Amino acid sequence: xxxxxxxxxxxxxxxxxxxxxxxxxxxxxxxxxxxxxxxxxxxxxxxxxxxxxxxxxxxxxxxxxxxxxxxxxxxxxxxxxxxxxxxxxxxxxxxxxxxxxxxxxxxxxxxxxxxxxxxxxxxxxxxxxxxxxxxxxxxxxxxxxxxxxxxxxxxxxxxxxxxxxxxxxxxxxxxxxxxxxxxxxxxxxxxxxxxxxxxxxxxxxxxxxxxxxxxxxxxxxxxxxxxxxxxxxxxxxxxxxxxxxxxxxxxxxxxxxxxxxxxxxxxxxxxxxxxxxxxxxxxxxxxxxxxxxxxxxxxxxxxxxxxxxxxxxxxxx
Length: 317
Description:
The protein is α+β, with helices and mostly antiparallel strands. The protein has helices spanning about 110-120, 140-150, 155-165, 170-190, 245-255, and strands at about 5-10, 10-15, 55-65, 70-80, 90-100, 125-130, 135-140, 200-210, 215-225, 235-240, 265-280, 285-300, 305-315.
C-alpha cells in the first residue's frame, strides 16, 4: 500500500508519513492539561497524568529497525492550543534523515531522493488531542493521501484505484489507528495508571487491526526502580502477547478483503514491549522504546519472524 511504506534502495519503512506517523517508522503524539488552565485535580499518589505545558517543543531523534535494516531520523514536535479550540494540536516538523543503512548519503541521487521523502513529511497530519491526553482525531489525513499518491509514479488509473481503496472506511480507520500507536507508546498507555516503583499491574492493550477495528490483548505494566542517573524519572514497561486461535482469526478476518491468501494463515503471534523513561508528574518522556515481534506461519511455507523497533530520544526546548 502506497501510504503504508516509503521504499528506497531496498529499504522499506512502514511510515507515519506515509501512514501518518508510521512512515519512517516515525512517531508522533501529544498533549496537554496545563498550568494556566485553572486548578488541577489532586493526583493520587503514584498516579500518572498527562500534563505537558502549552506550548511545548522538543527535538526527537528516532532510530528505526525494520526488516533487518536501520534508519535514524530527526524532527521537531510542537504542541499548541489553537485559538477557540478546547483541544490541542501536535505537529511534526522539519524532518530529516540522518542515516539509513545501505544508503550512501553523499551520493547525489540518494540526496535527491532523501529531499523528496523529507518533503513528503510535510504532509503528515496534525494530531488532535484532548487536554486529558486522549486522541480526538487527525487533521489532514486526506490531504496526506493525495500528496503521496501524486508522487507515487503510478498512472492516473492506478492512482484512482489506490485512492479509492485507501478511502474505504476500513483502511482509513486503520491509518488513524497507526497514528494512535505512537501516541500510545509515548503517553496514553500510562495515563491514569496508579503504580508504585517495583509494582506490576495487569492491563489490556488495544491492538489496531488492518481493517480499522481493534482487539484488546492482556498484558502487564511494571514500574521499575528509578535509574540512578535520573532518579526523578519513572521507568515504565509494558508487555503483551497476542497468540493462538484468537490472533489467527482476528488478523485473518481483518485482512481477508485485502489479501485472498489470508485464509492460508495457520499461526500468528505478536509480542509487544514498550519501555518509557518519563516525568512522573507530566508524562513528558525522556526516551521511549517500542518493539513488536510478529511470528507468522502460512500453509505450505516456512514460519517467518518480523521484528520492528522504534527508539525515541527527546530533547526538550
